[in-house]
Amino acid sequence: MSGSDVESASRPSRRLLGLSLMTWALLALGLPLTALTLNAVKIAGFPLGFWTTAVFVLLALAALALFFAIRAGGEARAEGLSPSLRLAGEAIGSAGVVGAVGAIAALGYDGLAFPLGMAAGLALLAIAIAPRFSLYPVSTITGFFMARYGGRWPRRLALVVAAIGSVALLAADLRGGALAVQGAFLTDYPTGVAVTAVLLALVWLMSALLNVSSGRGVIFAALLVLVFIPVFAYPVVQGRWPLPLFVYGYGLEDLAALEQNLIINKLADVRSLRPMTAPFLQLSMTNFLGVVVALALGLAALPYLLGRHISRATAAPGAAPRRAALATVWVVWFLLALAAFAVFARISVAQELSKGIETAAVPATLLEASGRGWVSLCGITSDDGSEVAAACAKASGNRGFLRLQDVAFTSDGFALAAPSISGLPAFAIWPFWLAAAIAAIVTGNAIISALLAADGEGRRRGSVDASALDARSVVLATALLLAALAVAMLGTMEIPWLFSEGLAIIAAGLFPAVALGLFWRRMSASGAVAAMVAGLAVTGAYIVGARYFPVLMFEWTGFLSDAAPGAVRKFAQLQADYAAAATEEARSAAWWALWRHAGGIANWWGLKPAAAVLLGLPAGILAGVVFALVRPQRDAESTSPASEAASI
C-alpha cells in the first residue's frame, strides 16, 4: 500500500460517522415502526406512515449517503457514473424486480420491509463499510480476513458463510429468471429453471474465458427503463395521468374502495382482504424490524458487492464511499417504482373481479397464469377451464362467480401474472419479463464470480482476477450452481424469503466480524472465528429448524413458541394420530398433516426465519468481543492499513 493511497482516502470524523449512523438508524429502523401513529394523517391520498416508509425514508437514505460521502472528503478520482451503475445493477437482482413487488402486493405495508432493507443496506455500505474496507490492499472478502486477522480459519469460515448465503441468493435469482422464462415462452417452471441455469452458466463461462466487462452501467439503466414501462402503463390503462410516483397515493384510496365494493357485491369476504397501508398485520413489528435488519446488514457485508465494487482492486479508497452513495441513489429511484407497481397491479386485478367473472367462463389470461402455478383458482392450479369450474362449484358459498378468496396469487407469480390479467398491452408486459431475466443473470454471474475470486485469493494468498479460471473454479462454480438449482427446483420458498434468509446468514455470520475488524483495533482472529461460528450457528439452526424440521423444533423448543393453546392441543392430537396410524399410507398422510401444522407454530417468540438475525447478530457480536478480549491478537495493529501507511 502506498502512502498516497491512504492520504487520498476519505477521512470521516468520529462525529460525522456517529451522527450519520444515528440518522441512518432513525430513518431505517425508527420511522417505519411509527406507521401506526403516522397513518392518522394523509398527504395527497397517502397515509403518512405508508408514504414515509415507501417514499420519504428511501429518498432520505440516499441523501444521507451522498451527504456523508461528500463531507468525508478524500480524492475521488473522476470515474464517471458507470462504476456506481454497475454496483446498483448487481445489487438489485430478481429479488428487487420480482420478489419485492410480489411481497408488497401480498403483505401491503409490511412488504415495504424489502425495498427499505435494500436501500438501508446500500446506505450503510457507503457510510460504515466502504471508507475503511477500501483501505485494505485486497480484492475479496477473504482477502480482507487474511490481511486483517491472518491465519487460515478466519478466511476459511468467511468463505463457508459466503457460500451458504450465496446458495440461497443464487436460488432466488434462478427462480426469478425461471418465472420470466415461463412468462415469455409459455414453458413450465422446471424448464424455466433449467433454461435460466444454462444461460447463467454460459454467461459466467464466457465472461471468465473472454474477460468480458460488466457493461459499463448500461445494464442497470436498461433495468430502470424496462421496469418503469409497465409502471407508467398501468395509470394510462386505468385512465390516469402517467405519473405513478405522484398519483398512486390516490390509487390507494381507489383500491380500498374497490375492495369494499367487492364485499358489498359478495365477491369477497373480509378475511380475504390484504389492506395495503395497514402496518403489522402480516408481519409483527418485531418481524418487520428483523427483515429490515437482515437485508440491510446482509447487503452491507455482501461478499460480491464488497469484492467487485468496494475493494482496493476495483475502487480507489477515496472513491469507494462516493461510488456506494451514488449506487444508493440509483437503486432508490428503482425501488420507488415498486410500491406503485404493486398498488396499480392490485387495482387492475380488483377491477377485473368486480366485473363479475363466471367460473364457467374464466378468461384465458387467468387460466394461463394458473397453469403456470402463479395463481390458484378455487384451490387448484390448472389451465383447464372445466377443472376450474368443477373446483369452484365445490367451494363453499360460491355462486358461480370468481371471488377474491377464490383467486390466490403466489407473491412471485403476482408480479408476473397481474399485468397480463389486467389487460396491459404486450409492449408493457414483455419489458418486465425481460428485466427479471436480465437481473437474474447479471446478479447470478456476480455471485458466482465473487465466490470464486474469494476462494482464489484465499488459496493463492494474493489478489486475483475475479475472472480467473482453473479446474477448481469450474468444480466450485458447478457445485454452487447445482446446489442453488436444487433449492430453486425442489424448494417451496418464494423469492422474498430466499433472498432475506440468505442475507440473514450473511448479516449474522459475516457482518460482526467485518464491522468489528474495521472499527475495533483489539478484534482478533479468535474473535472473528467465534463471531462467525456463533452468528451462523444461531441463525442457520433457526432457519433450518423452522423450515425443514418444524416437528422436531417444536418438540424440543415448543415452550418458546407463540402458538395459541388450541394450536398446541392440535399438535398433540396430530402426534397421536401419527402414532396410531396402522398402515404406511395412513402414517404418511398423518405425518404430512403434522409437519404442515408444525410449520406454522415452530418458532421462538413468533420470529420468522429471516428475523432470526435478531438472535444471531447479538450472539455473533458478543462471542466476537468476548473471545477477542480473552485471546487478543498481538499483531492486530500491524495488519491494519493505517499502521502500514505509518511504516512507509
Account of the 3D structure:
The structure is a single chain. By secondary structure, the protein is mostly helical. The protein has two domains: 509 residues, Sodium/glucose cotransporter, CATH 1.20.1730.10; 40 residues. It has 27 helices and four strands. The protein is 71% helix and 2% strand.
What descriptive keywords fit this protein?
648 residues, mainly alpha, Sodium/glucose cotransporter, two-stranded antiparallel ribbon, globular
Instruction: Indicate how many domains the architecture comprises.
Output: 2
Distance between the termini: 9 Å
DSSP summary: helix tally: 27
Write down the CATH class of the largest domain.
Mainly Alpha
By secondary-structure content and strand pairing, the structural class works out as mainly alpha
Q: Give the second-level CATH assignment, the architecture of the largest domain.
A: Up-down Bundle
C-alpha geometry: globular
User: What helical percentage do the residues reach?
Assistant: over 70%
Q: Which radius of gyration do the C-alpha atoms yield?
A: 25 Å
Short description, anyone?
This protein is mainly α and 648 residues long. It folds into two domains: 3-349 and 426-550 and 610-646, Up-down Bundle (Sodium/glucose cotransporter), CATH 1.20.1730; 562-601. Helix content is 71%, strand content 2%.
